[in-house]
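Chapter review: from sequence to fold.
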Amino acid sequence: MGQIALEGMEFFAFHGYYDEEQKIGNKYGVDLYIRTDLHAAGASDDLARTINYEVLYRLVAEEMLAPARLLEHLGYRVIDRILARFPHIHAVKVSVSKFNPPLGGICTRARVTLKRKRTSAT
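The token string follows.
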């Protein structure tokens, strides 16, 4: 078992609870952690035997294009997409951050973190 991580991905997107946030947009950060078996890729040096980082990035970027009211919902969608695309992944953890959230005071970022393990029925 091993972990693949894509940390510090940044996007400008149009998420937020308030309509105004969805119009003006904001900067978001995403950190993604995948637990999967990396033995075959390590032994073979073959990209086809692991999870392609570019594909992971593209799946996250596509979800960032579709507006969401809640960071929780956005993170849930990212996890759904990744588990659907890669049936051999054991678990996914994603953190989604909104930079400078409109809270009426100074706050560098608001962040939610979601984790999901694949169930044996999936």
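Two observations follow directly from the output. The mean pLDDT is 95. The longest strand covers residues 2-13.
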